[in-house]
Specification:
Radius of gyration: 13 Å
Mean pLDDT: 93
Structural class: alpha/beta
Order of helices and strands: EEHEHEHEH
CATH superfamily: STAS domain
Number of helices: 4
CATH topology: Transcription Regulator spoIIAA
Largest sheet: 5 strands, mixed
CATH class: Alpha Beta
Helix content: 40-55%
Shape: globular
Strand order of the largest sheet: 1-2-3-4-5
């Protein structure tokens, strides 16, 4: 399955990254490159929208954690929205859900960010 990540600037320092498809070993390098460039561009808050993400493997989780670590090193924050089904189970089984603030949807995450 294919993967895409679309960045939507919602506020001056907050972006929503809509993840679609499968975030796995085959897609992770493209994702990490895109996110590193975005983070180095000065963004302070990232909301990952998982609503349309079908699958995430350990390399995908690693990519999300790498983003979180890079953002924290720049005094930024990463939140998750719309986590459901298979990706939610992966987050819960690995206890990675404890590392992030997770919201039901993007609107809730945006409201909390502001």
């Amino acid at each position: 399955m294919s993967f895409s990540s679309v960045i939507d600037n919602r506020a001056q320092d907050t972006i929503v990254v809509k993840l679609t498809g499968d975030l796995d070993l085959y897609q992770i390098e493209q994702f990490k490159k895109q996110m590193t460039e975005t983070i180095n561009g000065g963004v302070k808050k990232i909301i990952f929208d998982f609503e349309s993400l079908n699958y995430i493997d350990s390399s995908g989780l690693g990519g999300i954690i790498t983003c979180m670590q890079l953002m924290r090193s720049k005094n930024g924050a990463v939140t998750i929205a719309g986590l459901k089904d298979s990706p939610r189970r992966v987050f819960e089984l690995t206890n990675i859900d404890k590392l992030f603030k997770i919201y039901a949807d993007v609107d809730s995450a945006l409201a909390a960010a502001n």
